[in-house]
Amino acid sequence: xxxAVFLRGDQITLRTVEEDDIEFLRDSINLPEVRAGLTTALxxxxxxxxxxxxxxxxxxxxxxxxxCHDDEIVGTIGLHDLDQRAGNCEIGLWxxxxxxxxxxxxxxxxxxxxxxxxxxxxxxxxxxxxxxxxASARIWEKLGxxxxxxxxxxxxxxxxxxxxxYFGVLEDEWL
Length: 175
Fold this sequence. Notes:
With 175 residues, the protein is of the alpha+beta class. It has helices at residues 22-29, 32-38, 46-57, 104-118, 134-142, 171-174, and strands spanning 5-8, 13-16, 63-69, 72-83, 88-95, 124-130, 146-157, 160-170. The radius of gyration is 15 Å and the shape is globular.
């Protein structure tokens, strides 16, 4: 495992995303099953993924972590748009398709949401989910996030406009 372990769950660890992960990130993000859930439409080559790694994953404004099981990277998770003053952030994740349905996404989301409240002093954590992505919606529902609303036709994926559902949880609801 190339990165430093940052947080631990029962089945997974969350560690830093390292340069050695770029090939996995590129290969996984280009898969139709992953791309469709993220509304990513354009292919990424190794150089573009490296640029994304350097500009986005390595920035100091977001929390970006690799989700690992048995020292193998299975996906990524992050906290974005951290607003320290208001105490809000957005959580997002993706898993390589061969790791879907094993509970890794739910556990990683639980561990990182807990970190957001306990260590970053967030007051509210939100998640956005394409209406067509029932598996992601189930993660947030299982964790106690409330459905806060729907933005109609907010995303375009797989040749059509789709709604985006917003889920959120407040600190006192979580703790």
